[in-house]
Amino acid sequence: MILFRKFRVLILMVFLIACSMHIMIDLLPKLERRSSSACSCSHTPSEEPQNWAKHRAKPGSESGWPNKHTLRILQDFSNEPNSNLSSHSLEKITVGERSEALKRFEQLTGDEKRHATRDSTLKNAVVKGSRLSALFERPLYTRPLPPLTDEDTLFNVNTDIRFDPKAAENPEWNEEGKDGNYAPTVEMSSDSYPNWLRFHIGINRYELYSRHNPVIDAMLKDLVSQRITSVAMKSGGTQLKLIMTFQNYGQALFKPMKQTREQETPPDFFYFSDFERHNAEIAAYHLDRILDFCRVPPVAGRLVNMTKEIRDVTRDKKLWRTFFISPANNICFYGECSYYCSTEHALCGKPDQIEGSLAAFLPDLALAKRRTWRNPWRRSYHKRKKAEWEVDPDYCEEVKQTPPYDSGTRLLDIMDMTIFDFLMGKRIIFTQSCKMVKKSTHSRLQLLAKEEFRLSALMEESLQTDTLSPILIRPHLEAMDRRLRLVLQVLADCIEKEGYSNVVEDDMVAEGMNTGTVPQR
């Protein structure tokens, strides 16, 4: 009986201690707010976060902020080096500031000195002569497209399409029609269209974009500078992605920063368990340009204000309700998705600024009808099961006899994408089983393996144009050179065994020759 009473007393004490801890946890945010209001913090959000609930919530309604989740342990990746408010930006130092800059340089650590020296060296190299410009002047990169027909283009503007003049910010589109739509006061030329529409018009069966088209650079600037008017979560997918609409009606897919540039994926992680990296999206577009595949939608990095450019403009209540303030007084949100959408995987700003990639949208399916073909070498996305191509040595021969891969260049295009993915570090090479590659692709890979046009140097130069530069750290750039050598070695082994003409498909023949394939650039 005495033992039973002691046990009850012990249970009661544990209960009281637990209640006391919960009360302290609930009071802690209020104490932090009082202390923060009495002092000037080193970083303050553009809007006072404590006023959010008062600003949004009405009497009797729920505030929208999950207070119980506030003190959950967060993976605030922005606390790491290369954070959202990063020190990546290359500062321009005037003559009067040189002495001060030299003093700062002496105080840097060894790694920081190497980065600073590398950046200044690269700047001088760009001034003396651009490797990228020299590459794009090579004959491999200047071949013209075949003549285009209406069937070769994906999207055409017709007279039924009307635009809001305020959205396009064009002074000529200022007459309101009787039907409530807007029509131009004069006959419009394609030069007056918004850049995203001109990008859509330029898509054809040979390329998604043209490197020589100035519209692409203008559109990349729009992705960085255009005012964001609305934000919504994209349905589907394992991780959070946002659809952002701009004031000129252009749209882009926003992937927020989840990991710093130095973080590596553990070797025991499955490929479908890894975080999507915003800097990888940016790097993919630049690699696509250098390889001259022109199949990746233009992507630009942008520093987004989570308060003004996401929370305040979204009409998605599910997204808005996931915003909260972290214990570090940073603004965070997590949205809704299949994986990694919880307070444990919240996206946190510094204090409300976050990096992300913005990929330009393709034309809507309702306006530009097209068919979608599944990649025959898609992965199983299963922890135990393997895909058929991973266990069947004759799988490629079966694909070659299956429409639509039994004619045209689709299979060769997939080989291009396989090489592209491997250079990005995404998947293994199966080119060895198919033993085929375009001559133009093989020639470019050989060119990028030369010291004069080393792939890592070209990528570093190209990525410098992005707002969030540097995008890739040195080890990642050097890894691309190693992967390129592996691809060339695999192709060399195939050519040695099968013969050059049986492996390398000549897509550089003169136009008009009946080769059974569509001419490529």
Automatic annotation (TrEMBL):
Binding site for ATP: Q239, K255, E276, A359, A360, F361, L362
Any single GO CC term annotated in Swiss-Prot or TrEMBL for this entry: Golgi apparatus
Transmembrane segment boundaries: 7-25
Coiled coil feature spans: none
Residues binding Mn(2+): E276
Cofactor list: Mn(2+)
GO molecular function terms attached to this record: ATP binding; metal ion binding; protein serine/threonine kinase activity
InterPro entries tied to this protein: FAM20, FAM20_C
One GO BP: enamel mineralization
Protein name, entry field: Extracellular serine/threonine protein kinase FAM20C-like
Organism: Sinocyclocheilus rhinocerous
Gene: LOC107731385
